[in-house]
Each structure stands twice: as C-alpha cells, then as structure tokens.
Amino acid sequence: MTSTETTGQDAPRYVRLSIELIAEITDEQALKNAALKQVADDEYLDDEERAQSVEAIDVDPSGSLAHFIDPVALLGDVPGVELASATWESAQTEFDPEGDGWDEYTVDESGESGESAESAE
Fold first, then answer.
1. Please, where are the H alpha helices in 1-116?
2. What pLDDT shows up at residue 121?
3. Is the whole model's pTM more than 0.90, yes or no?
4. Can you list the pairs that 82-91 forms with residues at least 24 positions away whose Cβ atoms lie under 8 Å?
5. 27-67 pLDDT, tens digit each
6. Rg of the chain in Å (alpha carbons)
7. What are phi and psi of 113, to 5 degrees?
8. Euclidean distance between CA atoms 113 and 106, whole angstroms
C-alpha cells in the first residue's frame, strides 16, 4: 500500500528552485540607505542580528540587496505550496551580457536545455 492509498493524499514532494539574478546597482548610497532602513524596521531581528547586519552593510554595500529578498513573498500566494526552507546570498560578480557564460539558454547537468525567464516572455 502506498502513502497515497493510506492517506488519500499525495505524498509530500519537495522541489528545489534555482534562480540566478544579476542586478546592476546604479546608486550604491541609495541602496545602502534603504537597506539600513529595512534593517532598522525589521521587527524579527534581535539587537545582535541588527548590529551584524548594519556592520555588513557598512563593509560591503553591495550585500545590501540581500535584505530585500523575501522568499515567503515569492511563494506566499501559490496554492498548494508551503515554503520548507530558503537560503540566499548576494555577491559581486563580473557581468558581460555578450560573454559566453551569459546565454539566454542554459544546459543543466542532465543535458536538458531550458529558457531563462527573460527569453520565455
């Protein structure tokens, strides 16, 4: 007997979503100021976490972008889905849209090609 037969529901399935975004920071000071305000207004941070966040923003303002990522908002309105876990980070990168590594189409490890969201529009 399968779990579907015993419970009458489908067994839980977990899906790993991998999303890669390249964002251009056009005004580092505006981003830094907005991130500092976001940290100050975050009711879920304790004092130690808040201090660490402020220090990280001061050291590397490009890391400020991570303070605006909300995985719950990405999946919050999707019916039948509950966020099980999320991690994210921001890091400076080199970006050349004409370079070989930035094609609209990618090939995953299984050899299947997929469209980027940009090319799927």
1. 3-7, 28-41, 47-59, 71-75
2. 36
3. no
4. 84/14, 90/62, 90/63, 90/64, 90/65, 90/66, 91/62, 91/63
5. 999 999 999 999 999 998 899 999 999 998 988 877 788 88
6. 19
7. -90, 155
8. 6
| Dihedral sign of CA atoms 16, 17, 23, 28 in order | negative
Say if CB 25 and CB 31 are below 8 A apart. yes
Assigned token pair, 94: 């080199």
> What span, in angstroms and rounded, lies between the C-alpha atoms of 89 and 107?
23
Least Cα distance to 44 among 72, 77, 78, 81 occurs for 72
Task: State the pLDDT at residue 21.
Answer: 84
CA 61, CA 25: separation in Å to the nearest integer? 10
Write out the two tokens for 114.
């997929």
- CA 100, 92, 119, 31 torsion: positive or negative? negative
Over residues 59-101, the pLDDT tens digits come to 887 778 888 888 888 888 889 988 888 888 877 888 887 777 6
pLDDT number for residue 37: 95
